[in-house]
Amino acid sequence: METTKLRAMLARAPGLTAEHVHALFAITGEEASLCDSAALLRQVRVRPAAYDYLTAPDEAVLGADVRWIQSSGVTLVSCLDATYPPLLAHTRGAPPVLFVLGSVAALSAPQVAMVGSRNPTASGRRNARDFACALARTGLTITSGLAVGVDAASHEGALDVGGVTIAVLGTGLDTVYPAGNRSLAARIRERGALASEFPPRTAPAAHNFPRRNRIISGLSHGTLVVEATCRSGSLITARLAAEQGREVFAIPGSIHSPQSRGCHKLIRQGAKLVESLDDVLSELQIPLSEQGVRSSTHPPGGTIPLDKEYEMLLDALGFEPATLDVLIERTGLSSESVASMLLILELDGCVAALPGGRYDRIPNDDRQRSRHPDLRIRPLHARRGTRSA
User: For residue 167, what is the DSSP state?
Assistant: First the structure.
């Protein structure tokens, strides 16, 4: 059978997994013959629904799938391909085929999943953007689900610093859901990838999203929950990450906020409490090559090039501590922009956070020795005691 049609058929077979495909390939020795024998399908114990579909596929639907695949620029990545993401390949129930728009290689890069509420607080949205920005600057790829709220803020944070981000969809890639994130999806495709296990014309049904979540966590070394209620789907992603043997992180919040209770529940269950960038990086301990560390990581003793807005913010800070509100007034920038920029300047050792919500500028000569040890960006391979993930 022609490869594209075969892969489209495997993607539509209900309940078919990568384990089934590998078992078939071990017997047949060639991809084209995977579904040639009904006896082989019974031998590897595919589910009845998958058996029925693979032995009598809907040719009209498959024909429409193939035409869309050929016209859309999508890549079908089989679990038999060397380009299939290795972390996902080692998860139970991995999909046999992934539809990918954008960079297939991005799916195999070191990733951190970021998930959370669709209705975050202003602080939660800011935390999502700031942590995504900081993580992306270390060379990590940010993976999320393209939903409104924390997901979108996480994708945007990575894109804002020229980082790589992946969106895993709960629909076919011919549909962007929610529709309001179409422009964001286009940016993600340019700087990373859109991925889905669902064939074209798959609508955004509720039961698709827990399946989508297992891919988000399965692609990633760890999952960071930014904000979540106790009934949030983000807790499903966190549970799946734990079952897959991946790290789970949670950012604490106010005891009065329902959006923090899911994170507090995860922390009580053993998730790593996150207050800073190093709380994530020290647990992941992913060894990256020099080429994998983004150019924004600065050489020892080097100076940090800043763009115009960052220079303006430092000038507004002057040489006496100032609060966020004062800096917003002096610069005319939005609160979200100033907060994000202050985090980056703190990570770069240009400013220090003080008690009372104030920030202080660090003189150039003192920057290297004054950087906060918990927030310092260092190449991951240079961390002591790193282990292979």
Answer: E
Residue 296: pLDDT over 50: no
Tokens matching residue 360: 């202080």
**3-state SS, residue 304:** coil
What is the radius of gyration, based on Cα positions, of the chain? 23
**Is residue 103 within 8 Å of residue 121, measured between CB atoms?**
no
282: three-class secondary structure by DSSP: helix
Q: Where are the domains of the chain?
A: 1-72, 105-284, 308-370
Q: State the pLDDT at residue 93.
A: 95
Residue 379 clears pLDDT 70, i.e. is over it: no
H helices of the chain, where?
3-12, 18-28, 38-43, 48-55, 59-72, 86-89, 122-137, 150-160, 182-191, 208-219, 233-243, 258-268, 277-284, 308-317, 324-331, 335-347, 367-370
Which CATH code for domain 105-284? Answer: 3.40.50.450
The first and second tokens of residue 20, run together, are 């089934």
Q: 290: pLDDT confidence band, cut at 50, 70 and 90?
A: very low
Q: Secondary structure of the chain: what % helix, strand, coil (to 5)?
A: 50, 10, 40
Q: Which residues contact 234 (CB under 8 A, 6 or more apart)?
A: 115, 116, 117, 150, 225, 228, 262
Residue 299 binned pLDDT confidence (cut-offs 50, 70, 90): very low
User: At residue 60, what is the residue type?
Assistant: A
Tell me which amino acid residue 111 is: Q
What DSSP state is assigned to residue 290? G
Structure tokens at 305: 């090039």
Q: Which residues contact 135 (CB under 8 A, 6 or more apart)?
A: 112, 114, 142, 158, 163, 277, 280
Sign of CA dihedral 23, 29, 34, 37: negative
Q: Is domain 308-370 classified as CATH 1.50.10.10?
A: no
pLDDT digits (tens, 9 = 90+) for 29-54: 999 999 999 999 999 999 999 999 99
Question: How confident is residue 285, by pLDDT bands cut at 50, 70 and 90?
Answer: confident
